[in-house]
Write a structure and sequence with these properties.
mainly beta; four-stranded antiparallel sheet; 1 helix; 1% helix
């Protein structure tokens, strides 16, 4: 059993870290991967609730050098000892950035790089000193967001790409200076995908389920950054469901139905299979999609562009499931707002 929340898992060795709600306390919690036994729980006396998603934190913690970094649904940022759960420092991203609590809470996962921890607060970005928690810089992008800050190296330059209600904004990790922007209005939730040749795939959504995806070509130079739209497709419209890229194609949810599009021009290759507002993983070495449906079923789908082909389906969880699954070696971890389950997957014989 686990408390409500839409966090996924961060895993290091035999320990998994997640967030959940227990009564009036928001928790960052550690459990054994091998047994599910609890190891520690850090509590903050806050409770976030909204009628669609219910109670609990939304974001997945980040791990770095023996620490756990988390962002709670109301903006609490924690740095905790990964072994004991002891608090190292705590901040509030809403207070530090001036952001108002958005309708679905703060949902972005922290980004840890070099000596900084960067969190998103409804379109604002705040960078904290990793050791002390002191704010290093803060910027406000154009429009709110439910996405996470995304680290990318484009044209040889490391940068943080943030999707917001305005579109895509790239900033320098050291000081938050804006490098480039691309307008693509909507409500972004899922992460961008970095493609070969300094190309980026971004998406945006609306309350009806999605607006589409766009491929950008990005280049830096002495005269600044140049961003060109290669195409925009309405044949893949992810809302809060992740999409994956494999062998020249993108696979994801077009509304509530699985879809495949070509990365060459955004054209639809196929659409089929109803998994609700599910999530998925790519098993790239086997050209398979591991889909976790909104109803808690696990399905294997062929990651090939010729047709939608479901290879098998088994029940995994009961009740609404929006949390992202995690595969660590041959252990598959899934959870929702009521329970978490570990499956050991059979290894394919050579």
């Amino acid at each position: 059993p686990i408390g409500p929340g839409w966090s996924s898992f961060a895993v290091r060795g035999d320990v998994l870290y997640t967030q959940e709600q227990r009564g009036d306390d928001e928790l960052v919690a550690a459990y054994r991967v091998s047994t599910g036994a609890p190891l520690w729980r850090h509590k903050d006396p806050v409770r976030f609730y909204e009628s669609n998603g219910g109670a609990g934190p939304r974001a997945t913690p980040a791990l770095d050098n023996g620490r756990v970094y988390s962002l709670g649904a109301t903006g609490i940022v924690n740095a905790l000892d990964a072994r004991t759960g002891a608090k190292i420092w705590t901040r509030n991203a809403a207070t530090d950035s001036g952001a108002k609590l958005p309708g679905w809470g703060f949902t972005g996962s922290p980004l840890v790089l070099d000596d900084r921890v960067v969190v998103a607060a409804s379109g604002r970005l705040v960078a904290y000193d990793k050791a002390s928690g002191e704010p290093r810089w803060s910027i406000q992008t154009k429009g709110g967001s439910y996405s996470s800050p995304h680290l990318a190296t484009i044209d040889g330059v490391q940068q943080i790409v943030m999707l917001s209600g305005f579109g895509a904004t790239s900033v320098a990790p050291k000081d938050g200076v804006v490098l480039w922007e691309n307008a693509f209005e909507g409500v972004p939730i899922v992460q961008p995908a970095l493609l070969p040749g300094n190309h980026l795939l971004i998406s945006t959504a609306d309350a009806m389920g999605g607006l589409g995806v766009r491929r950008l070509a990005i280049a830096g130079g002495a005269e600044g950054w140049k961003v060109e739209e290669r195409w925009t497709s309405k044949f893949l419209k992810p809302y809060f469901n992740d999409y994956v890229v494999d062998d020249g194609h993108a696979y994801g949810f077009d509304g509530r139905i699985l879809s495949c599009i070509s990365l060459e021009d955004g054209a639809r290759k196929w659409k089929g299979g109803r998994y609700g507002q599910g999530q998925m993983l790519l098993l790239a070495d086997q050209d398979l999609l591991l889909v976790l449906s909104e109803d808690g079923e696990l399905a294997l789908v062929s990651a090939t562009p010729d047709e939608h082909k479901e290879l098998g389906k088994v029940p995994a969880l009961n009740a609404k499931t929006w949390n992202h699954p995690v595969l660590v070696g041959d252990v598959l971890l899934v959870r929702n707002g009521e329970e978490m389950v570990a499956f050991r997957l059979a290894r394919r014989q050579s």
